Amino acid sequence: MDNQHAREKNDITVSFDSEELILVDHNDNEIGHSSKDECHSGDGLLHRAFSLFIFNPIGELLLQQRSAQKRLWPLYWSNTCCSHPRRGETVEQAVSRRLHEELGLASDLHFLYKFIYQANYEDKGAEHEYCWVYTGKSADTVRPNTNEVAGWRFVRPDSLDRELADRSPDFTPWLKMEWKRLRNDFKDRVAAL
Predict the structure, then answer these.
(1) What does the alpha-carbon distance between residue 129 and residue 178 come to, in Å, rounded to a whole number?
(2) Mean pLDDT, 10 residues at a time, over the chain (193 residues)?
(3) CB atoms within 10 A of CB 111
């Protein structure tokens, strides 16, 4: 595949305000569906989501800078990939789909844990998610979708610890919560990837 075709393929629109997300209760039971736009309005509706942390073969984490087009936390640095399963889609299907759509990568997925969080972004809306957290490893070439990703870089875990301490406002709230838990509770499982 030539570079122009690869660029065109990886610059397609993959996220829509009208896509139906999965509403859940506080036990992660599916209770209905609502548009992505409605899920992120006001203080947010509790919906199923995921976060993925992909490491390269030398143990560096792939971070992405969110697109300037994002309604919530545009141009903030975040974990490798985060999004939502759509109506009728399992979380694992969504994680694989979105990793390929945003970054052109494939990886085996390793589920770690689930948690609920809520975070408001200025007056533009909020995330209120029942988030499933995964890790994985990939040696694939990163091919970012510029509709979703403004920038990307690999970072050593200890360097990210320092960046989060020194420049916390540059990072998404979910990355900060999840990275702390990965470092405190799942360090051995991440190291074993």
Answers:
(1) 13
(2) 42 68 97 96 97 97 96 97 93 96 96 98 96 97 94 98 97 98 95 90
(3) 13
Residues 6+ apart with CB under 8 A from 166: none
Phi-psi region of 122 (alpha: psi -120 to 50; beta: other; left: phi over 0): left
Domains assigned to the chain: 3-191 (3.90.79.10)
Closest of 130, 90, 128, 129 to residue 109, by C-alpha: 90
SS3 category, 44: coil
Residue type, 172: T
Residues 67 and 116: their CA atoms lie apart, in Å, by 24
In this prediction the pTM is: 0.91
Collect all residues with Cβ–Cβ distance below 8 Å to 15 and sequence separation of at least 6.
Answer: 36, 83, 147, 148
Residues recognised as catalytic: 82, 129
Task: Name the token pair of 128.
Answer: 């209120």
Q: How many CB atoms lie within 10 A of CB 52?
A: 27
Alpha-carbon gap, residue 119 to 105, rounded angstroms: 28
